[in-house]
């Protein structure tokens, strides 16, 4: 009996650590990407001077982090913070295709950044932004 109670206590204590990531964790992770994406956006929109090395740094950082948010869509993890539509889980192949398009566009931006060809970089940046939008249109709901 004592052993059972101890096991129960340990299980309860471990619960928060085991809780699946939800909307807040996903939003933080996507916002981390914006800390690289936005400075590049300022340069391609000519709001800030284009600096090749700085741009490459941001493109590299984005590439390193880009897959992370997609590891946080645990099944049934729509909560009060989440803007995820249920279609993420009912149309997993379509969601995966959106993710793959995004990751491919991010790779392409990283490669283009290294050429220093600003006209091409603008196109590649636009390609990434387009994949953000198409996924949001299909799979992101309104703020709650
Ligand atoms: C951003 C941002 C998005 C995308 C999208 C592009 O900077 O936060 O969700 O670009 O607006 O259309």
UniProtKB/TrEMBL annotation:
The protein's name in its UniProt record: Cytochrome c
One biological process term in Gene Ontology: electron transport chain
Family annotation (Gene3D superfamilies): Cytochrome c/b562
Keywords: Electron transport, Heme, Iron, Metal-binding, Signal, Transport
GO molecular function: electron transfer activity; heme binding; iron ion binding
Residues holding heme c: 132, 135-136
Single GO cellular component term: periplasmic space
Matches recorded under SUPFAM superfamilies: Cytochromes
């Amino acid at each position: 009996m004592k052993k059972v109670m101890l096991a129960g206590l340990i299980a309860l204590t471990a619960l928060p650590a085991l809780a699946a990531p939800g909307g807040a964790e996903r939003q933080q992770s996507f916002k981390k990407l914006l800390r690289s994406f936005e400075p590049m956006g300022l340069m391609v929109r000519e709001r800030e001077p284009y600096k090749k090395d700085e741009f490459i740094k941001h493109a590299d950082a984005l590439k390193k982090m880009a897959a992370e948010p997609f590891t946080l869509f645990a099944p049934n993890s729509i909560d009060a913070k989440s803007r995820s539509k249920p279609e993420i889980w009912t149309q997993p192949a379509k969601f995966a295709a959106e993710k793959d398009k995004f990751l491919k566009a991010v790779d392409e931006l990283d490669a283009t950044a290294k050429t220093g060809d600003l006209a091409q970089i603008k196109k590649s940046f636009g390609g990434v932004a387009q994949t953000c939008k198409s996924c949001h249109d299909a799979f992101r709901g309104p703020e709650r």
